[in-house]
Fold:
Amino acid sequence: MAATRPEALREPAGAGSEALGAADEPTVEQERVAPERIEPEATAPAATAPEVEASAPTEPAKDRGRWWRGFTGSLAAGLTVLAIGVLAVAGICLFTGAPGPGATLLVGHPVAAVLALLAQRVADRRTGPPAAGAGVAVVLFTVSALTLFWLT
Structure:
C-alpha cells in the first residue's frame, strides 16, 4: 500500500516521530467568539385614525377551535386504527380458520373511517360553521360506527 501513496505523504524511512516535529510545538490560542443573537426589531405602531384604533382588538385573536379540532382529530384517528385492527384480525382469522368478523364489520369500519377522515380534513382546513359542522360529522360517524358494530 505504501507504493500507492504520493511522495509528499510518505514518511521518511526511520523517521518515526521526528517527521511529526510540528505536533510538539504549542498551538496558537484562538479568540473565543460568542454566537450572535438576532433580535426582532421593535417597530413603533403606525399612527391610525381614532375610530379605527378603537375598533381594533388589543390582543391577537386566539384560535378558538383548537381543542375541538384536536378532539375530533383524535376520534377520526382512533376510528382509523380500529378499522385497520378489524381488517388485521380478519386476515389472521382467514389464515387460521377461526371465525372472524363478518362482512358488515369488514366493510363498515373502513367506510366510517374514511368518512371521518374526510370530515376531519374539512374541519382542519375551514373556520366557522363549516368547521364545526365537519367536527360534529366526525363525532356522529364515530358514535354510529361504535353503536352499529360494537353495541349490537
